[in-house]
Specification:
- The protein is of the alpha+beta class and about 325 residues long.
- The protein is built from eight helices and 17 strands.
């Protein structure tokens, strides 16, 4: 099997045999990695995912995407409630994998489990560690106004994304790119990097390097309250969050006592005036110009009244008869 591997020189080509591995993953983000590992000829002894979870208004059980992929690929599958308990450790020991792969599994794994594979647990993380550790790195890369992000492979340790680094790949973030688009790109890029990592690991060409912990940033878990627009902050903050928090938790504010989702928001930069935050400065077919903090303005381009359909700003204006001087709250 031919692969390009990096260990200080990512132009080096190596030939490797397949590895015996166990794959841990749950969401759609992990599917390209599982497919790539199989296509590269590695022997997947077992796919471990989280149990089906109730979701939606009617709390119907939903199967994780990686489970559906494993079934499609005819791979052995397990969905334990606790992958790191004594039973999980015994199962892994019995399989005797050379390496384990983790892609968005969604749970910390304990030291007794991490110690089983010969080459440890290789984790794919969608950021350029140590920046954006934690549960929502893609969203916060956009929300933070980063122009570059990437993917990292690392060896798991007991911490949250604190293990030694293996390989990294950078990619620019488009100025209008939203979370779903960036997530899909990083999933594909990460799958390629994972295959490169396994090839280099099998060939003995990887030298793990410790992270610079002093440079680390940690992302918080996404919550609905993070989407509540604070008009005292600059417009660029909310323009970034509008792209980052699509589709959830989204942005929202109030208008005439009712809740309004803001689905499109662009930074209009500095605009003269001393109006209160949330004040409508003007309306046009392009959008609704609204005062934000630090002398800036934002253009609302798509909105949705609670319980109604989403509308472009010009259609929203027709229905609301909104005028200059009114305020969003």
């Amino acid at each position: 099997m031919y692969n390009r591997a990096a260990a200080g020189d990512d132009s080096v080509a190596v030939y490797t045999s397949s590895m015996r591995l166990v794959f841990y993953g749950t969401p759609e983000f992990a599917v390209p990695s599982l497919e790539a590992v199989v296509a590269a000829g590695h022997q997947v002894l077992l796919v471990v995912s989280r149990p089906d979870q109730p979701s939606g208004r009617h709390l119907e059980l939903t199967t994780p995407p990686i489970v559906e992929a494993a079934r499609r690929l005819h791979l052995p599958l397990a969905q334990p409630r606790k992958a790191g308990d004594a039973e999980g450790v015994a199962r892994l020991r019995a399989l005797a994998p050379e390496v384990a792969v983790v892609v968005a599994y969604g749970r910390l794994l304990p030291p007794p489990l991490l110690a089983v594979p010969q080459h440890g647990f290789v984790n794919l993380h969608p950021s350029l560690l140590p920046r954006h550790r934690g549960p929502s790195p893609i969203q916060w890369a956009i929300a933070s106004g980063d122009t570059v992000t990437g993917v990292t492979t690392m060896l798991l340790d007991e911490g949250m994304d604190t293990g030694p680094l293996l390989l990294q790949r950078e990619t620019p973030i488009g100025s209008r790119e939203r979370y779903p688009e960036l997530e899909a790109r990083l999933a594909r890029l990460g799958a390629e990097l994972l295959v490169e990592t396994l090839a280099a690991l099998a060939a003995g060409r990887l030298r793990p390097r410790p992270q610079e912990h002093a440079l680390a940033t940690v992302t918080p878990k996404l919550e609905r309250k993070l989407g509540r627009i604070d008009f005292s902050l600059p417009a660029r903050v909310w323009a970034n969050r509008c792209r980052a928090f699509d589709p959830w938790p989204g942005l929202y504010c109030t208008l005439r006592g009712g809740r309004v989702k803001v689905l499109g928001l662009e930074d209009a930069g500095a605009v003269p005036g001393d109006e209160a935050g949330g004040t409508v400065l003007g309306c046009s077919t392009a959008g609704i110009l609204v005062r934000f903090g630090e002398g800036t303005a934002g253009l609302l381009t798509e909105l949705q009244r609670e319980g109604r359909r989403r509308l472009p700003a010009d259609a929203f204006l027709l229905g609301e008869r909104l005028g200059r001087g009114e305020r969003f709250g």
